[in-house]
Amino acid sequence: MSKREDDTPLQNTQSLPREPSPTPRRSKIKQFMHDWVANIKIPPFETWRKPVKQALAMMIASIMTLSDNCRHSIGQGSLLCAIVIVFFFPARTFGVVFEVSNFCANLARDPNIPYPVQPKSSGVLIVFLFIGVYVMTVIRFSVPRANFACIHAAIIFAFTLTDSSLTPGFHPSLVWQFLIPVTVGAGISLAVSALIWPDDSMTNYMNVFLKGLEGHNTFFKEHSEAFFTVSPASVATTLPSLHDRLQGCMLTLIDCKRAVHRDILYSRLNGSDISKLTKLIKELRPPLHGIGLSQIIKREILQDESAQMEQDALKGAIEELVKVFQPLTEACYNATEEAIERLRPFHGNRPRSILNSILWPFPRIFDVHHYIKKLMGASTNNDFIEEKRTTSRSLKELLIQMAAEADNTMWPLAVQHSLNHHERSLHLFGQYRYQLRHYTQRIVSLLEFVEEIEQKRTRRRFWFPTIKALKKRFFSNKPNESEHHQPEDPLDLTLVRTNTRREALGDLENPAEQASYVLSSSGKLYYRDPDVDPPASRRERFWYTVHKMILWAVSSNSMMGLKTAAGTVLMALPFYIANSAAWYMEWRGNWALIILQIWLSRASGMFIYATVMRLLGTVAGGVLGIVVWEIAQGNPYGLAVVLFVAYAILYYILMTNPNTRMFCILTVVTLTLVAIYTYNYKVGVFPGNSPVWTIAGKRILLVCIGVVAAAILSIIPRPIMARVELRKSLAHTVRDVGRLYGILTSQFLVPEIAMLNPTKEQKKGFRRLTLDLRRQIAEERTYMHLSSYEPPLRGRFPAERYKAVLETVDSMADLVAGMGYILEDIRPSWRQQMANTLQRERLDYIASIMTTMKLIATTLSAKMALPPYLIGPGDARDRFLQSLNHRLEFSSEDITHPSFLSYSAYIVTSSAFVKELQYLLETVEDLVGVEDPQEWLRKHM
């Protein structure tokens, strides 16, 4: 064919109109399949490591259940080995029950009646079951560390106190038949966790620490460079984004520090070194937040169209000061990078490659060059350290030089660019200088500590936990998030979810917490109660104690225990009735009781979603159990291998997709029940020869009964909605922020207090209050997320407004913490001078702010409207600043005063706080409304 003949059909085809055909759709499908196949990537080994560990532990437990010898040695409860491991990630303690119930039930039996199920013995067992479940539930919800112990105690209770009904005589060994597999399961989990790719707490900590330090260093460089640019669109930072970047991995770092404190370490560093490192990186956050705030204020000034003269003055001053501050900022950035590199040898175990991880625990035979490099560099290591040790001294000298140069430059610069007539810009430079100085001091402290450990911690050794750390571990009621879930996962609301706050769901409106103290005649402090005076006589103190007991009895924890105990007893009744005990035992109705106790929790925003996911997980587990059994065809070795593959996939999904946690856990539980029970029926452990689908149907039915019963009891007497708890919790947090603000501002209102420096205990208590605020806000973010799962039955939830309220309260908590951090550096004489200046105007200004915060907290909590006439915090600030500007003029002595920088930082931070409060007031006004007197007048015309 010639070229011309070959080209002709193509030209004709292009000239013809296109006719519709299904080809484009097919091409889209092909393109989609091609893209889908191209995007399929095998996840990295590190992602699969923990799922494989958990699947391996489950497979070992399944093999022990499938093996005849192991099953006979463990006893009839051998299935619990696998079930317990589901809740043992990683290994946990287990619960223990007493044999007194079995003994008392046997005493109540009539020996003349051969059948063991009798009314009197059943009544005794029911009483013990009710009391035991009640006590365990109250402990579980009151003491977060006892969560896993109570779960395993519930499993043992459910089996022991139901099997005792059908067991004649007194057999204490019945308890041990179920306690042994729980112990074996705990041992398997502990062995796999410690021996198969063990997680080194020191390595985990250093990974998080170095990542956080690198993030802080990057943040410092970005915002320092942005501050010295005159473009208003340099770095678009907001207070919420500022918080997110700086808070990042801080809670995770604290959890990793706690893990280091309670572990036996083989490392160069010990627990006290880790505490020091944690303290150093936590101390970097306040000055970094202040530097970020300086950038925000500078951008606001440059974007203010009504402040053209101030903008010109600010730009001119920035161009002059960049020469002074730039060497110090570059030195801080380089010094932090250097500290990161010098801390890497203290990293614990070096990260393993994929090949070395698979070959574990064999030696790293493929990493010989590391040891050669180590030997070659050993001789020059000391010289290297000596060379690095000059950095902290040079940084100190540079800081002193910069401070002197800035003091000499600032006043002429202020006069030249008229900054002394623009207090906002003048305080802005004072804020940046103050934060940069403190950040540099923190970096110097970090370098000094690095130099110290380089000299003292030259080799690895064993470090054992201290008594103080162990006491803190076992006797503290504060939950440790790292034990239960990843702190970044807000959807981790399974049985292992615990509250980080002191208040539980439904207990946020505690009148005692919102009241003040009053001193009784006996000298004891009581919360002020407007209904009664403090108890004075013995009779009054007795009834006051009774009143407190009644309040505890109707608290949410006690009511949860009562509901759980009542539901468990009702579902266990067939075990204690002669006509139904045999068939209920044959169906293994114990699992309905266990599922009820495990999954009964306070109803929250995820109630409907959680219930649906649990039911779907139960059905999926039953179907998957049938598939696994049909694949293995009853071969115990094949069954163990197939179960291992299924477990690995399910746990991988569980750990990578938080939304499927409940689904995966119920799938694993039901899959294990179906596979193991079917095998037990096949080998004759249980009488009968039921097919796999019958066994799967029974297991699905029992688990679904437990899930549905837990769901029904959770909403009795009424469901607790996350959006309601969010509103109450936000009101509680605003009140606490106002309390902290009142503590700080008292330093400027009372001259006698202003002359006193805060004590060590006061500083520690203030930090504890700010940490409580952080935990409260973390819970509020969880409530906010849960509210998206609640159906809008009565109306749409104003999520955007509540999100704005939450972010604003979070920013206010950061700012008030920064104000407390700055206040420590203002000298008492300067504070007293501030307290004596414009005392009345300052009192009116602070009273307006405190009243606004109290009104916001009250109206949010009680759903009341705001009053029609109110002086907003923004107006109060403008009035006070106007009076202040008429009375104050800064001189060169003021600007060079040691307290001027901290004073400027306090002014800038408090102004940002008031601005956020004004925005919060406007947002809350949109939520609760404002009383309108004109409306009443119109109705009564």
TrEMBL record:
Residues spanning the membrane: 79-101, 121-139, 146-162, 174-197, 565-585, 615-631, 637-655, 662-680, 700-720
Domain (DUF2421) ranges: 717-870
Residue span(s) of domain Putative ER transporter 6TM N-terminal: 121-241
Keyword Membrane: yes
Coiled-coil portions: none
Superkingdom classification of source: Eukaryota
Keyword Transmembrane in annotation: yes
Pfam short name (any one): BRE4
Membrane topology: Multi-pass membrane protein
Keywords carried by this UniProt record: Membrane, Transmembrane, Transmembrane helix
InterPro entries reported in the protein's UniProt record: ArAE_2_N (IPR018823), BRE4-related_DUF2421 (IPR018820), Brefeldin_A-sensitivity_4 (IPR023244), Memb_transporter_dom (IPR049453)
Region Disordered, residue ranges: 1-26
GO cellular component assignments: membrane
Residues covered by the Integral membrane bound transporter domain: 582-712
Compartments where located: Membrane
Protein name: Membrane partial
Lineage, highest ranks first: Eukaryota, Fungi, Fungi incertae sedis, Mucoromycota, Mucoromycotina
